[in-house]
Amino acid sequence: MKNVLTIAGSDCSGGAGIQADLKTFAAHGVYGMSVIVSVVAENTCRVISIKDIPPKSIADQIDAVFEDIRVDGVKIGMLSNKEQMKTVADKLLQYRPRGVVLDPVMVAKGGCALMHPEALETLKKEMLPRAFLITPNIPEAEALTGMKIETAEEMKQAAALLLKMGTQNVLIKGGHLSGDAVDILYDGKEFSAFTAERIQTKNTHGTGCTLSSAIAANLANGMGTADAVKAAKEYVTTAIRHALPIGKGHGPTNHFYTLYQKGGLRNAEL
Ligand SMILES: Nc1ncnc2c1ncn2[C@@H]1O[C@H](COP(=O)(O)OP(=O)(O)OP(=O)(O)O)[C@@H](O)[C@H]1O
Ligand SMILES: Cc1ncc(CO)c(N)n1
């Protein structure tokens, strides 16, 4: 079995962050581990408070994992501030794990900032060059490039700019545009589009976390980059189509449906 680590924030309501990542890992048959960088008191409606974990504790958690266990893949989500980013970047340089998928989380669904805006430059300089693949949504790609992105052509231009910042692959997610949900992958040589029909639902809490974790798990399981993204896109589309009407706001993605279809769950009520 492959071992995959998520470095991200905790969502106590279970729909996004570390909790979404670990559920996604389990559904992909990989052994999940977690380094918590921030405790976010949030639910499907709002963020109540954010408690950042001190950099020393983040470094210790990363050491605890790497000194003992082979790490076959890493997903990085919410990083709240510059110091946390520098700490994680240093540890990535020290341990040099393969297949780092960086989801540059900036803002929660309801509009609450999960990253301090002044950390943007550190994200660009310290984190992007350490990533095998980054998965920004449209507003994140706009913040990172300074471009306005409204069309597939502009997504491609932004992806090319992001690649120049040092990451090896870029997947810009089109969830925030209208029409089909089209994500565009750029590996420095060619662009590939991954298209899914847009599902009419308000239950989209944790979609980005689900997608990036599924990609990290697929890469760890030995898939090539485009195949890993294709399979992850199919996974997240199914997880949104069958999203759970839990909570009063944006309900979470469903990590059980694919397993259930394959007969992998008994006595589950879906
Ligand atoms: N309504 C939808 N129907 C189908 N696919 C969707 C829908 N909304 C988002 N997606 C897809 O879900 C994935 C996550 O994209 P999205 O742009 O929502 O990420 P995000 O904004 O980072 O999510 P998060 O809420 O976790 O921060 C992408 O593959 C996107 O195309
Ligand atoms: C902890 C956490 N990470 C990421 C997101 C973005 O979905 C969120 N809402 N909460």
TrEMBL record:
Domain Pyridoxamine kinase/Phosphomethylpyrimidine kinase: 11-254
GO molecular function annotation: hydroxymethylpyrimidine kinase activity; phosphomethylpyrimidine kinase activity
Metabolic or biological pathway, per its Swiss-Prot or TrEMBL entry: Cofactor biosynthesis; thiamine diphosphate biosynthesis; 4-amino-2-methyl-5-diphosphomethylpyrimidine from 5-amino-1-(5-phospho-D-ribosyl)imidazole: step 2/3; Cofactor biosynthesis; thiamine diphosphate biosynthesis; 4-amino-2-methyl-5-diphosphomethylpyrimidine from 5-amino-1-(5-phospho-D-ribosyl)imidazole: step 3/3
SUPFAM superfamilies: Ribokinase-like
Source domain of life: Bacteria
InterPro entries per record: HMP/HMP-P_kinase_dom, PM/HMP-P_kinase-1, Ribokinase-like
Family: Belongs to the ThiD family.
UniProt name for this protein: Hydroxymethylpyrimidine/phosphomethylpyrimidine kinase
Lineage: Bacteria, Bacillati, Bacillota, Clostridia, Eubacteriales
